[in-house]
Amino acid sequence: MLTQFSWHQFALSVGACLLLYYTVVTLLLYRRPLRAWLSRGPASRQASRPAATPDVMGPVLSDTSSLLPDAAALVVAPAPPQEPVAAALQPDDVRADLLAELQDLLDLAAGNLAGKEDFCQLVRLVISRYAPALPGVQDQVNRFLLEQGHDRLPFALSAADLQACWPTAAGQG
Predict the structure, then answer these.
(1) Phi/psi-derived region of residue 76, left when phi > 0, alpha when psi is between -120 and 50, beta in every other case
(2) Is 52 inside any structural domain?
(3) pTM score, whole prediction
(4) How many separate domains does the chain show?
(5) How far apart are CA 71 and CA 63, in angstroms?
(6) Which residues of the chain are under the pLDDT cut of 70?
(7) Where do transmembrane segments lie in this chain (predicted)?
(8) Structural domain contains residue 60
(9) How far is CA 172 from the centre of its chain?
(10) What does the alpha-carbon distance between residue 32 and residue 27 come to, in Å, rounded to a whole number?
(11) Is residue 61, in this structure, part of any structural domain at all?
(12) How far is the CA of 95 from the CAs of 36, 46, 66, in angstroms?
């Protein structure tokens, strides 16, 4: 249809139109910064460059230098104490904390339909944290779990299951 135009002429005319379009858009959008930049002289353009910033990281170490001069320069944090969490609390506070944590565990097991094995493992974990501070609460905790878990848990919980959660006398000493 347009046989009088070659592809070369078409590409040149489209390129010229695009160059003209982007020049107009640039001048319209950046007219203030361009006017401010052009109003300064060539000497002020070179002077407006930011000064070199000081070296923040310091000098580069050579490959022969050591990263740590000696082992005495290492600082290590002390090891955390190995006593149970509940050891510093009063027995009544510890008992209340234990029962509150077991109540949360019952809520979690009832909501997530956890299996008996998972529930017993979590009870074993909670008991291992509190048992050293409360030596005589085994019957009270077992009774609490049986009463509270009777209707709420999706599985049957027996006293033998709870007895297996407590550490044996050989494991404590």
Answers:
(1) beta
(2) no
(3) 0.43
(4) 2
(5) 19
(6) 1, 41-52, 54, 58, 61-74, 81-92, 113-114, 133-135, 168-173
(7) 6-30
(8) no
(9) 36
(10) 9
(11) no
(12) 76, 76, 55
